[in-house]
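Continuing from the previous page of notes. For each protein in this section, the sequence appears first, followed by its structure tokens. Read the first protein now.
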Amino acid sequence: MVKFRTPADAGKETPFLDAHAADGEVEATPVASSPVVAGRAGRLRYRVFGRVLPSALYAYLGVLVGVNLKRSILASRDHGAVYVIGHPVRLGLYLLFCTIPIALFLTRPVPRARDGTLVARGAAFAGTVILIGAGAVRGGAGQVIVTPPSWFADGAALLLALFTALEVYTLLRLRTSFSIIPEARRLVTDGPYAVVRNPLYAAEIAAAVAWAASEPRLLLVAAVPLFVALQLLRIRFEERLLRRAFPHAYRDYFARTPRLVPFLW
């Protein structure tokens, strides 16, 4: 989940001039760049890998979440408001989180530059699949380690709903700057990005921990540390690209804004 874009060929870096800020967003101005999408083959490759495939992935995950949402609505008839918010409402929010990117992938402009290295791409896709796949495929996270008290599970589910809402809100702030692999289009510095530099990752990590607490299944609990490590790795690649794409604007933004935890780090 990225908050920027920039143009560069798969293995090249693109120099940039100063960035220009407006309404919390900073556009990068390339000094000289060769387009990310060049020629008929390049345009076709971008349509397939930059639009169709990610849209199809999120559409498939959205279908899985929709099925779980229907089951959750039926199961909530004999439960109170806490259960409803922590389960069907939260799944409804998660369905938005899976379907909104489809429109973004299909309408976003070509990135000005990207980090096309294998490790950056691998971390991005692995981190995305682990989180969204785990949230979509309910019951597939292994045997329950311990059954928590109902009040604890419901409280964790409420926190999960809260963090999922924050994910959706942050995604809407990013709009067409959202991507899976590190890409740079503009630097968003307002809204949740005025609090921390990586609010979407912060919300995703918090949601993963809350989900594991509400349903402490063996594979899910074991996957959370790997998921966190992948997200931290993605942050490293994305911030490196941002520093190159927005050398002056990002330096100031970096100096005044924590990375992941408000007021701390």
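Done with the first. The second protein uses the same format. Note its length before scrolling.
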Amino acid sequence: MSADILLCRLCGSILEHVVVDLGEQPLSNSYVVPGSEHEENLYPLCARLCTSCGLVQVADFVAPEAIFSDYAYFSSYSDSWVAHARSYATAAEARFGLGADSTVLEIASNDGYLLQHFLADGVGVLGVEPAANVAEVAQAKGIDTVVAFFGLQTARDLVGRGVAADLVVGNNVLAHVPDLNDFVSGIEHVLAPGGVVSIEVPHLLRLVEETQFDTIYHEHFSYFSLLAAQAVFARHGLEVFDVEQIPTHGGSLRIFGCRIGDSAHPELPSVAEVVAAERAARLTEPEGFAGFAARVERCCVGLRAFLTEQVARGASVVAYGAAAKGNTLLNAAGVSTELLAFVVDRNPHKQGKLLPGSHVPVCDVPRLIVEQPVFVLILPWNLRDEITEQMAVVRDWGGSFVTAIPEIEIF
């Protein structure tokens, strides 16, 4: 078989249909130390559809160890995300009767943003986090955290030490997994009898309908519909019994699963409702993506035209949020420091570095207040309300906010 033929990471079928090609881009979370720009590597960023199982995916050019072993994303820097986690923990404890004798296992537990809430309520917790620098923050909060990539072998190791999870949580991690079969088989292995798995993934339907192409980057290997998630689960003895449509990350699915045939968790009508919407949108067929690439191109052209116009008229534009999705957008649109002077971010782990590809400097938030730009381009548009509330001072000097997805909006 030719080396340039790509196979589906779930079912092994040949990937023949291109959803969108975003050219060659750097890793979106690999922030650049000034002076090392020449060392940056670029990789093709092209999303393809598997017409056999419905999984949309990008090729894995880089091993997860190169991406996630020392990671710059800390969940607790988003107030809305911490609040989302608190709400989830409260609901899960009540729904599944979790208490002191229970174990909640979170995969990709980051800095303890979620497990801290279960811990405070007296529920047993265990995190698995591959980034040692991030895991240290969770451990400092008293959260038992194993530094490892999760898969079947890690699950076996955990079971060997007596772990049986009543609830396995994976929020926005399934997309980051190149070997889906190994990962989901690990979940099934570590699940206690009658246990539940809860997975959150950005919804492919929202990505397509709202042109959220900036959520495509190398660290996101897969893009899920519920239909594709069902296929992943079914291959490893699991089934979906409930699904919630939630607003995080521009529209996500919270998928609840259990072992196939678990009578304690009958399938709820929500599953059929989402499946029907996805089938109507033809998300497992090439026809469901018709016109998507053209809309992406219009978005990129629109952003570049807006920034070019502001530079020409002497109106300053500064970006807020050194988010991975923003890097996909800026690089796809060909934006560099000629059009965007700097970006500010609350995360000190990103400050003092350069955005990958565009090499726009990352500064602390006070820098924006000192400069008082005419426009503040919000790159993590999914946090638009949180950011505009935090940065209400921008309006005091007559500044305006801007988002670029799916088109330029000034507000």
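What the second structure shows: DSSP finds 13 helices and 17 strands in the chain. The domain at 292-410 is CATH 3.40.50.720 (Rossmann fold). We return to this in next week's lecture.
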